[in-house]
Amino acid sequence: MKNNILSKIIIGGLLFTSFYGNAQKTNLEVDVTETITKIQPTMFGLFFEDINFAADGGLYAEMIKNRSFEFEKPLMGWEQPNTKRSSLNMNSGVATPIKVAENETNPNFCRVLINDDKGYAIINEGFRGMGVKKDAKYNLSLKAANHNGAIKKIIIQLIDKDKKVIGETSIVPVSNEWKSYSTQFTATQTEAKAKLKITFEGTGTIDLDMISLFPEDTWKSRKNGLRKDLVQLLYDMKPGFLRFPGGCIVEGRTLADRYQWKKSVGDIENRRTMMNRWNVEFNHKQTPDYFQSFGLGFYEYFQLSEDIGATPLPILSCGMACQYNTGELAPIEELDPYIQDALDLIQFANGAEDTPWGKLRSDMGHPKPFNLKYIGVGNEQWGPDYIERYKVFEKAIKTKYPNIIIVSGSGPSPDGEHFDFAMAELKKLNAELIDEHYYKSPQWFRENASRYDNYDRKGPKIFAGEYAAQSVSGANPNNRNNWECAFSEAAFMTGLERNAEVVNMTSYAPLMAHEDAWQWTPDMIWFNNLEAYGSANYYVQKLFSTNKGTDLLNITKEGKPLTGQNDLYVSAVKDINTKEIIIKLVNTAVKSQDITIDLKGSKLAAKGSVITLTSPNLQDENTFAEPKKISPKENVYNLKGEKAEINLPSYSVIVLKFKIK
Ligand code: AHR
């Protein structure tokens, strides 16, 4: 494999297929009647983390950055272009952040003093601009307290990059006291980098807070909801589960800034904004304006899981801050609040309406339980401190909720001292589902397709919870979502599927990244304020997820699984619902290869289908300009007799589907 890729690079990109002689033939056999094991419905899922502006500035469709003036610098994201000195040595107007300490969750608001009619404005820059679409409707809401009725009108305008007005509305602030206002308007132009400009009629003082702008057209038309195009990409994958809210964001750089789910539910206004830990994590990508509004909080995550048909998988802090940062530890005797968070979360998700947390869920709009089955204890912790804490959590959760399946972690690497220690300890504890993470080279993925072949079938089940091939190296800003990474993941995924007896859950990570505001690459889905596309890796994930089947079949070459011999990888499943046999083949060679598959057992219909995902060059990628450059193409496949013959193009992922008669 390595040699083939090297040869191709040396040859300078020319595909000298003939150099390798005629396409070689590989004969495979599959017994389509014998189920090896059931495939878990959760097999292929999603890992969501608020990294790369994935939540605020991404999935959560709010367009105003720092709507409640709660960033560390309360006016971050807001400009005041006309605040200049006049001849009277006064500002035409000025905005000043005011803090009301008694309001613990939303202490700041913005006091605006308008001195004259010289056009004082405050402007919100959005999340690297605001994406607005011609003829689309936008909902603006804000809270205002108009001192002595001084301000006659608040004028709200969307402006394009040349400051031209492309949408306008106004609000008459009628009350001295805090009051909520809302209005809707239509954009007259499509613009990727719009801003929201607010001007005033009248002079005097007005207080403003919770200035919010959402598109009317959100996922499921939910008011102030999620970005439709992004959720659609997730929905289309038919994911088995949704893990949230991360990732390292769960842990926090310190315990104080860990993710606390209770602070992410209830009234939006009272969800206290806080720093996003990724804002200063990497020198190569500082994003000091990255905060979490928690508008996308745990209720919304559960709702999203339900919407996209995914089992919810929340992960909680186990009292250990990120070990790459402070590694701060909650002493064992002070773990109670952390454990209580886990128990209360289960009640929030599943409890009856007459329980305190079940009531909150119901009050928020979901009387029925969310049917939570899994909970994760810690994200990517390692060492004895983790095991010690895991034991306490396990005891408390299982005592109260014996049927909840606990996900434990094996640290950040799929091998080495920390991994070996965690696996040995968790095995002793009969852990149910262990999360493994691998951010490795494409070559590693190709070479590790047999990773799980020898895992103990009676031991803990595996959640391959975070993985992605890194074209350069882990957490390197030059990593690309290129085709070599994607097909190498596909090769590895045949190994995940072949080992469905052990591997019950898998997810690529991270999920999403904003074109102008990311910190980590590669990522499965890329978006800007107007558009989104799935990377080649997305299409690999989607092919597996939408063709996962229900029963694992054994497919072999001379009695052995194909795990990279001749640069070939294969797995096979049956779907008892759609009555299909589905075979996944990955050719990681520079040359095409002929395959014959002997399909033994049931009678199959002559007309099947073949889905091909391929691209000629290792470095090929999808982009905003060519979002579907690497995407599946489906064709009819005609089966003659019991043997399927197929030519696998170079660098290809193929899904063959046959109907059982
Ligand atoms: O996916 C990005 C990060 O990688 C996750 O937050 C963390 O769990 C892992 O180290």
TrEMBL record:
The residue ranges of the Alpha-L-arabinofuranosidase C-terminal domain are: 465-652
Signal peptide as annotated in the record: 1-23
Keyword set includes Oxidoreductase? no
Highest taxon of source:
Bacteria
Query: What EC number(s) does this enzyme carry?
Result: 3.2.1.55
The protein's annotated catalytic reaction(s) are: Hydrolysis of terminal non-reducing alpha-L-arabinofuranoside residues in alpha-L-arabinosides
Q: Name one GO biological process term.
A: L-arabinose metabolic process
Recorded family membership: Belongs to the glycosyl hydrolase 51 family.
Q: Which PANTHER family match?
A: ALPHA-L-ARABINOFURANOSIDASE 1
What is the name of this protein?
non-reducing end alpha-L-arabinofuranosidase
Organism, per UniProt?
Flavobacterium chungangense
